[in-house]
Amino acid sequence: MTLIIDAHEDLAWNMVNLGRDYTRSAFEIRQDEENSPIPAYNGNTLLGWPQYQQANLTIIFGTLFCTPRRRDNGKYKIQVYETPQEAHQCYRQNLDAYFELAEQHPQKFQLLFSQVDVNAHLERWQAHQAEEQTPPPPVGIVILMEGADGIQTPEEVEQWFDWGVRLIGPAWAGTRYCGGTLEPGPLTKAGYSLLDHMADRGLILDISHMDHLSARQALDHYAGQVIASHANAESLISGITVNRHLKEETILQLIEREGVMGLVPLISFLDWNWRDHGGRQAIGLEKYIAQIDHVCQLAGNARHVAIGTDFDGGFGVEAVPHEIDTIADLPKLIPLLEEKGYNQSDIDCIMHGNWLRILTNNLPTS
User: Fold this and answer.
1) Which of 18, 121, 159, 295 has minimal CB crowding within 10 Å?
2) What is the pTM (predicted TM-score) of this model?
3) Which domain holds residue 335?
4) What is residue 102's three-state secondary structure?
5) What CA–CA distance (Å, rounded) separates 335 from 169?
6) How far apart are CA 316 and CA 309, in angstroms?
7) At residue 133, does pLDDT exceed 70?
8) Which residues does 11 contact at the CB level (< 8 Å), separation at least 6?
C-alpha cells in the first residue's frame, strides 16, 4: 500500500488549546467532545492514531501555531499573543507539546530532525509493509513553525533550529516579517534578515499564507529550499476574495525553484461559494484531483505537488469533501489519480515521494 506524507497538521495547537489526544481514535475524540463547544468552534476531528495507520500515513509536518489577539473571534478560550515575547512563549509551549507526545508515546509518535532519522523511520515502515505481523511503526513528526512571530528577532532562528524546528512559514496573518492572509504587504527589512538567518541554518521556507507580493519576494531572495506546505491554485477557486492561495506566476516560480506545493482538501479552498453550489455533498474529491492535475500540468510532471491537508486547523469533517470522514480516507485519492491517467511512479511522488525528496535533500545529515 502506498505510503503518505502530509505536510501540514495542526496537532500541537489542538493538544494545547482543545486538549485533544491524538494517540486515540478520531471517533473516540468525537464522542468525548459531543456535548462540548469544541465541534462548533473547530469542527469534528479528522485525526487519530488508528486512522493514521489505516492511511499508511508515515510522516506529518506538525505545526507550531498561535493566534494573534487581533484575529481571535472570542468564541472559545484559546492562547493568543500581542507581543513578540507572548508569541515566543506560546510557540514554545506548542513545541513542548510535541516533545511530550513523543516521549510519552514513543510507539505512536516519533520526532524526526535529520536525514538519518527520516531514512531509519522509512525503513521501519517498509519493513512493516513487508511483514504485517511486525508492530505498527510510529508516525514521524517534522516540526514546522506557522507564522514567525514566535521568533523574537531574526538572530533567534538559530535557537529554534537547535530546539528542533526544520521549516518556517513567516506568515499566517501578517507578521512583523511580511504580509499575510487578509493583511497584505511586502517582506520587511526584518523579513529579509529572517530569511538570511534561515538560509544560514539550512531551514526550509514555507510560503503558505504569505501575501502574493511577499511570497514572490521570498522566492526571489531565499537561498535555500522553498515549499508551500498547504496552499491551492487560486485560479481554480472561483469567487475567492482573499490572498490565501498561490497565483499562477507564484506556482511557476516555485516549480522553477524545485519546490513542492501541498494541496488542501478544504471545500472552501476548492469552491469558495460551495454553500451556494449544493453544500458539502456536492463537493467531491474530483475537485481536489483537479487541483493536483493543474499543478502537474503547469510543471509538466508530478514532481512538484503533494498533500498538505491542514487537518484540524480550524475545521473538521464538516468542511472537507464528502468522501472524507477521517485522515484514513486519503488513500481514496489513489484510484482517482489512476483514472486521471497517473501511473504508479507519479502517484508515489504525489502521495509521499516529493515530500520525502524535500526532507532527504534538505534536513541536516545527522
Assistant:
1) 159
2) 0.98
3) 4-362
4) helix
5) 32
6) 11
7) no
8) 22, 47, 60, 62, 63, 97, 98, 101, 141, 312
